[in-house]
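Example 185, ligand iron/sulfur cluster.
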Amino acid sequence: MEVIQLDKARNTNFLKEVEAESGQKLSTCYQCGNCTAGCPGGEFYDRQVSQIMRAAQLGLKEEALGNRSLWLCLACSTCSARCPNEIDVAGVMETLRSMARREGYVNDRPIESFWKAFLDMVSMNGRTFEAGVMADYMLRTGRGWSNLAMAPAALAKGKMPFFPHRIKGRKEVARIFKRYAEKRS
Ligand code: SF4
Ligand code: SF4
C-alpha cells in the first residue's frame, strides 16, 4: 500500500463534482477506516478505499482517479454496508471509475476491457454470458485465454454455456444502460 501524495495539485471543485455525480455526502467521511477494514480487494490495492475517499475530499484528483485500486474493486458494496455515515462508498468508487474513463486516467487497460466486455453482455442479454465476455475480452485486448485449463471443468458443470440465456426483461435492462449513457453524455 502506498501513502497518498498530499503535495499533488488540488482541485477545489473536485469534491463537489464527486458529491454531485454520486449523490453521496462524501464530506461527512471522518476516516474511521471501516470501509478499508472490510474491503476484500484491499490486499491488492495501491491505495486503500478510505485513502481514495480522503483524496477526493482534499481535491487530490490525480490520487483519486489515477490509482489502480479503482479497477481492482469488486463492486461488492461491503464498504457501503460498513460505513457509519451511510456513504455509499461503492457508489463513489463507481463514480470515480466513470470520471477516470472520461478524463483519461484509466491505468489498467485489461481490467477496463473486462469491465466493458461484462457490461456489454449484461446490456445485450439482461445478464452475463461468460463465453461472450471471454470472447469480447480477448478481442479487445488481443490476449489468449489464459485460464484455458479451467474450461473442461467449467463446461462439465454447465458454467460455460455456448449460447446466451436471455432474460425476459432485457429490453428494460438495455434501457437502464441507455439512460445512464445519455446522462453521462
Ligand atoms: S466495493 Fe470495492 S472498495 Fe468497496 S469493499 Fe467491495 S471491493 Fe472494496
Ligand atoms: S467507512 Fe465511511 S466514514 Fe469510515 S472511512 Fe470509510 S467512507 Fe469514511
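Summary: Residues 39-41, 49, 73-79, 89-90, 93 surround iron/sulfur cluster (ligand 1) (CB under 6 Å).
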